[in-house]
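User: ok so my PI wants both of these folded by tonight, can you help

Assistant: No problem, let's get them done. Here's the first:
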Amino acid sequence: MSKLFGWFLLTVALTIAAALTATVAVAQEISIGGKVGVNLAKTAVDDFDQEETRTGIVGGASLGIGLGPVFGLQIEALYAQKGVKAPDEGLTVSLQNDYLEMPLLARIRIPVSGGNVRPTLSAGPAVAFELACTLEAEGGGVEVEVGCRESGDGLDALNTASVDFGLLIGGGFDIDVGRTILSFEGRYTHGLVDILQDDASQLKNRVFTFLVGLSFRVR
């Protein structure tokens, strides 16, 4: 099953790469840059409403492909910290997931007459590959930290999903200064994959993200 899923991902990746190559060929504008910001991450948990936010960092590279004065595509490769905190019998238990996240976004830049500030809207899918996972418990002067697939010191091993998939929607604004674009954006990512593979409950990522970006038009 894992080999089949791997071939499926490879096929999807090659298809997307071919489509993007064709898209770049007809692009009216191409920009390259980077983004950095903060994730406010929680999870959707069945029959549990006491989870707390994990604050993490997010940042990486972006490629913008303008297909006209309004519509475009944006591909990103981001390091993103997600997870959740939850009280558990006097302890605060933290699930800390770090991902390489790759959103593929349709993006609209709304023209505003007489200025260089353009409101933006974006939406699309995002696939995330798990880079690291840590389970931490803290309370009563005791702090324990283990890898999610390890067990010890009263913490059970967790079998977490190596790939997450979500849907993203966001909005913000761009400031155009010559060939430079300064961007500010807020996003929400709705995870669709149960990140605990062998648990009876459903645990899915829910993340609010705030980003600052700087990019440069190269075409």
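One down. Here's the second:
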Amino acid sequence: MATWMGVLALEVGDAATQSRLISRAGADALTPRLLGQIGRLLPAEHPYGFSWAAALYDPAQVLRRGFPVHVEIQDLFLAGREKGLDIGQSLCLMQHQGHMPTRVLEPDAELGAGILQVIPVVLTGSDEAIDAARETLESSLYEQGLVDAGSALSLSEDLGSPLQHVRWMSLLDMAAMMAAQLEHVGLAPAWELIEEQLFAPRPRELEVTSALGLPMRLDSTGLHVGFLPFAVFARARPDHSGSAALDDWLGLVHEFRQLQALFAAHAMAPLVPGEQDGFLTETHSEGPSVRYRLHTHPALGALAWSGFDARGALVEHRYPLSTVAIERFIRQLRSADVAVESVRVSLAADGRDLA
């Protein structure tokens, strides 16, 4: 038994107000329309099973190693064979009381609802049938892949949001689109690692550099992304003035957080060399810290905590690497009744207030 994995890609006009789940009535009405269209594109000499999940997913949720959403759909189709479901029939997996049938099929709420959403589709058949389907679909979807106007209108009305385009795509087509979008925003090096993790049976060891110079490496131990505390960054640029060094470092923080979010969306948790409990910590004395100064930025939020002992001497700088680490440390300080002064990031005369 073989499979072809694809999606219906939707460009949503008003992503903020749309539903992520297609209604049961809407899914029932849409299934024969989709079957009719995909059937016209498939080789007539082979029978196929058609299964899909009636929900909208961020592309990153379906582009994860092992393609768990599509595999779950396929596994449920195969499980249905015990009840008489077989090749030549269709299966629509839809919501019940606001939830999809399994946890894997729940749209990831943390990814939000962006302008581009996808509906996962799986074709099942013999090896020969899927080989023929793949050859046909890969050559015809670009020219003939637009969903008919009636299906698009039905989807739009059910979701309560206008749809700009609805198109059939293979997962390879979807990946190529994501690669182009990330290249446009300067994140192409990160996609090299994501693509290797997605499609390589045994991912190779790869090392790339971000647009601003952050090292990224994929190896047998996982994904590694470098990050520089401000002190290290500033010392490496002695020719920069204080404000220039800080501006450049803030750009690095922004890029690092973009990379973190991108990798997390594709279920790739980056490791940071030197990280402990979600922080990079520079220790200056034994402490303990009885007072902290939180350095914040209007757009980036918490950047670092500076800890001081009872005499006012610097004990440590703590650089948080995730929102979870920030929230956990705030709770720890509150429970220990440690004083925290919050200040906007500003530079001392020597340009080294975090150094």
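DSSP finds ten helices and 13 strands in the chain. Residues 242-265 form the longest helix (24 residues). Good luck tonight!
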